[in-house]
Each structure stands twice: as C-alpha cells, then as structure tokens.
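User: Please run a holo structure prediction.
Assistant: Happy to. Please share the sequence and the ligand.
User: Here you go; the ligand is benzoic acid.
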Amino acid sequence: MTQQQHQTADITQAVLDRLADDADPRFRQIITGVVRHAHALIRELDLEPDEWMAAIQFLTRVGQTCDAKRQEFILLSDTLGISMLVVQLDQARRSKAALADKTAKARPTEATVQGPFYWEGAPVLPLGSDIGKGMPGEPAYYSGRITDTHGKPIANCCLDVWSGDGEGVYDMQMDGDVGMRLRGRFHTDSEGGYRFWSIKPFYYPVPADGPVGDMLRAMGRHPNRPGHIHMMVYRDGYVPVTTHLFAADSPYLDSDAVFGVRDSLIVPYERHDKGTKAPDGRAMDRPWHAAKYDFVLAPA
Ligand code: BEZ
Ligand code: FE
C-alpha cells in the first residue's frame, strides 16, 4: 500500500471505530456498510471535490422537489432500480417456504414497485363494477382467479386496483381536488374469482421536470413506463403482493423507466369490436378489451 492509500484506509476505519458498541445491531450493520461502500466508491472513482459538491447539490435539489404530492427521492430510487431490487429481495424473503415447496403447483405472483400513486381507502365495490366509467380510454374487462400455491381458491381475497386513465394520467396528478378515479377494492367470490371493468392502460412518463428528469437525460434515458394497472392482493393468512399487469402490446415493455416489468406480468388485451357482447352480457357500444389473469399468493 502507498502512504496515501494507508491514510485514506485509516479514515474509513476511524469512522467505523466511532460507532458505539451498544448501537442497535441492525443499524450498526447498515451504517457500517454505508461507510465502507461509500468510501470504496469514492476511492474507486478518485472523486474530485467539485464532483462531490455537484452530487450534494443534486441531492439537495431532490429534497427541495419533494412536497405533499411529490416524492423525488422515491423517484430517484425507482429510476436507479433500487426500489425494484428491494421489492425482489423482500418477496424472496417472505415467500421463501413457498418458493422451496416441491409440491407447489404455482409460484407466487411476482411483485413489482408500488409507485407513488397508491391511495389507501379506495371504495369497496361489488364484483363486476366499472371503475372506468366516463374516463378517457377504451373499456377493459378484467377477470381471473386468486389461488394459493397449491391451486386452492382464496375466497374473500381483496384486490385493490388503481391506474391512470387511458391517457396515462392519475387522479393524484390532476389539478384541484378531483377525488378518487379509477380505483376500487374487490373481494373474490367463493371460487376465488374476480371481475371488474376499467380501462386499457396507456404508457406514460414518470415526472421528468425535476432533478431526476435531468439525471435521466444525462444518462440518455427516456422517462416512460409501459401501460399497466396496479393491484395489491391480500387476505389474512397469505403473503400480500403488490404488483401490476402490463399490456402486452404497449411500447416500453423492454425499457420501463423504473425496471418494474416481469415477463409473468405481461398480459394480452384481447380486442373486441363495437357491438359485440361482453362476458357479463353487456352489449358494447364501442370497442373493448378483455384481460385475464390468475393471481397466486403464498401462505404466510
Ligand atoms: C407508477 O407506476 O405509477 C410509477 C412508479 C414509479 C415511479 C413513478 C410512477
Ligand atoms: Fe403506475
């Protein structure tokens, strides 16, 4: 080691030596990792003072962009793939037994990012309700079953659904207080079945007018997410899953700005002409789509 390397290694150890022995053990582990990896990164990059100052100014702007409706730090985490990495590790940890079960018939539905537009307390609606009525976009009929990993139907399982409209705009992004749109909670029947109407989702950009947008442009990346509808699926006794269904014909499936796409979540939207009858007997006066998907939950 050169004398300079000795000196910088001493700084890392000096910081770690100041950590109290009786600090919370998990906190000790995390802060030790942060110090080690941050120091190693700075050494690896041989980071210059003005570069470090630019990083501090960037993070300051990220903080200043946050308000009651906007969380730029989560967007930063999402666009750097960190949110999705945490989601994947969490699902692997919580579904370990189900994933190792050799007698299981199906794997738990893959989780993906929650995103910033979840709104707790969506209306509880009867199966078959239409949450897309009057909204921009083409109607879509969603149906399927929710079972456990052995194929047993899960009755009374909650499917909490939300999405942007057919132009990719969420209620929370609209000016003024428009209230909840395109949201609902449905409970499965005794066979684990669910069905409801909404719209076929459209691709849309994550907010790109702040520092995260600047970062994406500097990286040569677009800000778009492929068309998707969000679902949170839960019932006591099962590992809940927060996920999306992605429209199979949407652009950006292979370059989602937040790395949330999983092949198992890509669903064909079967298009039907105006005038055809929907599965619930409705005579449709405009073109509509049918999306079928079966969800699988791991036992808790
Ligand atoms: C969304 O799916 O709505 C979303 C997810 C991550 C960042 C921004 C938006
Ligand atoms: Fe979304």
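The chain has a mean pLDDT of 94.
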